[in-house]
Amino acid sequence: MKRLFLIRHAKSSWEDAVNSDIERPLNKRGKRDAPFMGKLLREENFIPDLIITSPAVRALATAQIFAEELGYPKKKIITENNIYESGIKEIETVIQKIDSEYKTVFVFGHNPSFTSYVNHVGDQFIDNVPTCGIVGIKFDIEKWKEVERGKGKVFLFEYPKKYL
To answer: Cis link prior to 130 (omega < 30° from 0)?
Structure first.
């Protein structure tokens, strides 16, 4: 059994027009929501064996905040360029390359690709994964390379506006 948590980055800032898209930082709401959602996972005892993130500043910052809340070493976070500006195929390739030793994996990234991927592999339709939204999907598999369309069971869908 494998558990995949797809986590969309927290709310980012559009204030500084000088920043490129990949450089956009978290805004005030994002800095509030990320620790809250990390604590929510900790309280449910969902602890990652591995964290992978897009290199975008907002995604990496969200991953680091979650890592801190969950007691995961920040230096062990893996940055994966193929998550940024990706589609279903790129995300699936990243997932299928994960070493089989890892049971619970958190992946931080972006829309629209995360919503599309959730609907590609999961058994429930989700209209939109909002900022700092978390979708947990279970797979009855031994190896991550076995992840494919329709094989997952969505067991968790959380997002800040449900609580804050």
So the answer is: no
Indicate the pairing of strand 134-139 with strand 152-158. antiparallel
On whether the pTM is more than 0.85, the answer is yes
| 3-state secondary structure at position 3 | strand
Q: Is 51 helix (H, G, I), strand (E, B) or coil?
A: strand
**Residue 151 belongs to a domain with what CATH number?**
3.40.50.1240
Q: Could you give the strand order of the β-sheet that contains 2-8, starting from the edge strand earlier in sequence?
A: 78-79, 50-53, 104-109, 2-8, 134-139, 152-158
- What's the structural domain count of the chain? 1
- pLDDT, one tens digit per residue, over 26-74 is 999 999 999 999 999 999 999 999 999 999 999 999 999 999 999 999 9
